[in-house]
Amino acid sequence: MLSLPDRFSDATFSSYRAKTSSQEEAVRAVRRFVENAQTVPTLGQRMRRLFSQSSRQSKGLYLVGPVGTGKTHLLASAYHALTPDVPCGFLHSNALFRLTEHPARFAERVADRCEVLCLDEIEIDDAANEARLVLVLQTLEQRGVRLLATSNVEPEQFLSNKVGPGRFRRFLRETFREQYDVLFVGGEDYRRSQKKKRPGSGWIGPEQTADEAIRAAYESDEKQALWLPFSELRRKTTETPHPVLMRALMEAQSLYVPGIQIHDTDDALRLLRVIDDLYLAPDAPDVHFSAAHPPEEWFDRDAHAGIAQAIAEKFERTVSRIYDMCDVNQLDAT
Length: 334
Fold this sequence. Notes:
By secondary structure, this protein is α/β, with parallel strands linked by helices. It folds into two domains: 6-184, P-loop containing nucleotide triphosphate hydrolases (Rossmann fold, 3-Layer(aba) Sandwich); 191-330, Rossmann fold (3-Layer(aba) Sandwich), CATH 3.40.50.300. It contains 14 helices and ten strands. The strands form two sheets. Strands 2-3-4-1-5 form a five-stranded parallel sheet, with helices on both faces. Residues 57-181 form the AAA+ ATPase domain.
């Protein structure tokens, strides 16, 4: 669970291309974090830590910013730079939030194995998950485990600041910035402009034209391909337990989803969950889709307010992942 996913095997500081001043500062900050973690404390420092109330060795680092600015790349670069000399773990927040184990107990197990934890994509989810997060962070802090984390969300925006118990609000409003340096990483989404061959495809255009394009690709696909129109996928997400559905999708080598159309927040959340799980899975099928409009227009945050807008903001990361998974082609009417 604490190993770095294979897709980040080539991520290094030298391969990161900083395009903004905040990205350049992020590289310097993560390098400093690594250097501090690699520094062996003196006997005096170890004794002071042993008899002090806190076992903190140095402040953690929390990288926050929009999707696609390379925060996870820097996280993986730090992991590579530290391993194996410094015991290091890598964990996505999805895995943390799905644990049935008590958060503090899980954090104790992490601390038994790791001196550094790289925690990827902390995000607004719900108050219960944020409570889990706070308990994990507090336990890691008590055990002296350094944290390097990424997020699209400032800690002050977490739901627990508004509706959580008082101790969680105090932690997020006051203690968090005492224990972690919060650094903004800005820039455009590199996944949309990155020049590389992607395993999947998307066809955007009039329904008949897009359907013909995806059907032709499906019929010529020599892999084990699954044809699953979006209407059918949506039905399955309502009738099939999510783990069962994902196991079924993972049996295919290519997944074809024609006719994607988001009608409401429920559709957006269901597609978000499927796409995000496919993106994070090590052996996921190649994803191919068709739609009348490009992914960024499926559930635009500017067209929504309140809870729907919050979901639309979260959906932006899913859009970024779709562009990372698929070459998206704009079709003209024939």
